[in-house]
Amino acid sequence: MSDVSKRFEQIVIKTHKKFIDEGRLYPEKTPEGILVGDILITCDGPYKHIIKNQETIYADICLNDAAIKIANLLALGKSTQDCNRIFNADREYNRLYVERAMLLAAYHSSLESRDYFKAEVLWARYCEIKTKAVTAKKKAQRLAAFL
Question: I need a surface site. Which of 32, 95, 99, 143 has the fewest CB within 10 A?
Fold first, then answer.
């Protein structure tokens, strides 16, 4: 083995150890999805599922950050209470995101049908939900951040 490849192997081992010390596991890409320890993250369109021992633990996670953090916490045997908080924050963001998209579509439909009063009400609701969605996303990402 050359000096470069030995050095590279040392860097990989050191980085892997550093991840574990920080409470992170190194993810591995597999044909089924992303493997973090013994936890598998699979994708179904825009949603991710957390699977352990062929059993779905968390389904329909919207944010990548949330899925990765939950997988790490479960693989390290950490509290499921933290996982549930992240999952609930992600679910709240997803609900607001979908509602925002529906309101925007209804707004455009009202404009096309020239129902301007309804369009104005929908736009006000859209703006309110959009603000709430941004706040919910930031909260979910903050909970899922690796500190």
Answer: 32
